[in-house]
Design a protein that fits this description.
Number of helices: 2
Helix content: over 70%
Shape: elongated
Number of domains: 1
Strand content: under 5%
Distance between the termini: 9 Å
InterPro entries: DUF2768
Oligomer: single chain
Organism: Chengkuizengella marina
Structural class: mainly alpha
Radius of gyration: 14 Å
Protein name: DUF2768 family protein
Keywords: Membrane, Transmembrane, Transmembrane helix
Transmembrane segments: 6-27, 34-58
Length: 59
C-alpha cells in the first residue's frame, strides 16, 4: 500500500470520528426514544469503522 493511500485512509478515519462525535452529541441533546437509539447505534458503528480504517492506515 502506498504512503498516499495510507494518508487518505487516516484522513477518512479522522473524518468518521468527527462524524460519530457530532452524531452522538446531536442524539443526546436533541432526540429521545427510538430515534436516539438509532442515531447512537449508527455513531458507534461509524466509530468502529473509523477504528479499523485507522488501524489499517498504521499497518
Amino acid at each position: 500500500m502506498d504512503s498516499m493511500d495510507k494518508m487518505w485512509l487516516s484522513f477518512f478515519a479522522i473524518g468518521f470520528m468527527v462524524l460519530a462525535s457530532v452524531l452522538i452529541t446531536f442524539a443526546r441533546a436533541k432526540t429521545k426514544g427510538v430515534i436516539r437509539f438509532i442515531i447512537s447505534f449508527a455513531a458507534v458503528f461509524i466509530l468502529i469503522c473509523s477504528f479499523f480504517l485507522g488501524l489499517i492506515s498504521i499497518i
